[in-house]
Structures are given as C-alpha cells and as structure tokens.
Amino acid sequence: MPHSRRQFLVTTSAAAAVASCSGQSARVPHVVLLGDSIFDNAQYVPGKPDVIEQLRAALGSNGKATLLARDGDVTASIEEQLRGVPADATHLVLSVGGNDALGHIGMLERAVHSSSAVFTELAEVQAQFRMGYTKMLAAVQKRGLPTTVCLIYDSNFDASRKPQADVALTIFNDVILRSAGHAGLPVIDLRRIFDQREDYANAIEPSEIGGAKMVRVILEVVRAHDFVKGRTTLYA
Q: What domain count does the chain have?
C-alpha cells in the first residue's frame, strides 16, 4: 500500500474517532488546556510566545484552542476549571500534578534517620495523590470528550538537587500513568520532550522552546490518536 494512502487512512480514522466521541461529524477541533503553569506559562516567557499562543498559531484556521489551566493550580483545582469548558470543545489536554509535588519539596532538605521512614512517607504522599487524581480524572471523563493526560517532566534544578527531585517525581508519575492506563487514555510523556536545559524558562517552567516541542506532540495526539479504541499510547 503506498505511503500516501496509508497516511490518508490513518488521518481518516482519527477524524472519524473524534467525530464519534464528540457526537457530531466534521467538527473543527477545539482543544482545551487544563492544568497548571505547564500550559499557563505566559509570565515566564515575556516577549515570547506562550503555550496557548503557540497552539493557536499551529492550529491556524483549522481549529481553536482555549486556555483554562492556571499557574499554581493543583489537582483539586481541575473540577473548577472544567466549569469553563466551551460548549464546542472537542479535546481536553490535562497537565497537572507538579504543584502537588512541590507541596512536598521540603522532604528533599529533611535529615534522614531511617530509610524505612522515608519510604513510608513517600507511600503516604503517593496514596494521597492517587486519591485526588483518581477523583479529578473521573470528573474530567464525565465530560465525554477525547482526553489526553501529561506526565510531569523532570526538574531543571541544579545538579545537587535534580537527581533526588526527579526520583521523587516518579511516585506522582506512576499514579498518572496507571490512572491513564485504567481509563484507556493517551499519555504525553513530558519527561522525554523536555530533555534539554533550553526547554525550561527556569527550574520548573517551560520556555518557548519547550512549549513549541510540547505543542507539536499535542497536535499529533489530537490529529492521529484513535480515542474510540480506548488504548493507552505514550507520545513523546
């Protein structure tokens, strides 16, 4: 089968899947960004395009994008964000959890007397996050829209703190990945996208370079993922 025909079939299948999920045919894609400063990064890239601006430019006249994500928001904030989802929304993209993790950053500086105590505390933190993320994701899915979730990218801390921070983040990413797998949702692995210092505006926020890389993957998921099949696919 010629490559061009294969590509045509993939594109046609993805369009049909989106139409089925949205309940209408031939709808213009309207991508809604939920979450935190991973999407709401305007103040960290002054004079340069932020994520929503980059997404709108990439979609052009072939789609729309709405930013509901708010800098500083946590998992528990998403249900409030959902109230602003436009009636013509076709896709939800969710990136949240980083600020939940930051709430426990003090653990990196604390003196350790017992490895058992550390693992017990990490298990408690993970259980708390799992409870909140599961509840939040259920609320998102009630919208009945094709939904994509993002893993938390690694930190851009200095060399003395980065290894510990990145290891700690795995307990949050494990929850996100397992939740997405249970729900059959595609996952954008930001850890593999943000792999250069220039992708960050500071220790934890995306630069315009990282934002552009992220937007390319968001568009790949929106345009090519078959949401009807309910398969969890990792994108990067």
A: 1
What pLDDT, in 10s, does the model give residues 56-77? 999 999 999 999 999 999 999 9
What's phi and psi for 148, nearest 5 deg?
Answer: -125, 140
pTM: 0.86
User: Do 204 and 156 touch, CB atoms closer than 8 A?
Assistant: yes
Q: What's the token pair of residue 109?
A: 């500086």
Which helix (H) or strand (E) is 35 found in, with range?
A: strand 30-35
Phi, psi for residue 64 in degrees, rounded to 5: -130, 160
pLDDT digits (tens, 9 = 90+) for 125-160: 999 999 999 999 999 999 999 999 999 999 999 988
Range of the domain at 184: 3-235
For the segment 38-62, what is each residue's pLDDT rounded down to a tens digit?
999 999 999 999 999 999 999 999 9
Query: What's the CATH number where 217 sits?
Result: 3.40.50.1110
Q: How many CA atoms lie within 13 A of 179 on its CB side?
A: 28
CA distances in angstroms from 12 to 5, 6, 92, 209, 225, listed in the order given? 10, 10, 20, 31, 11
Beta bridge partners of 91: 31
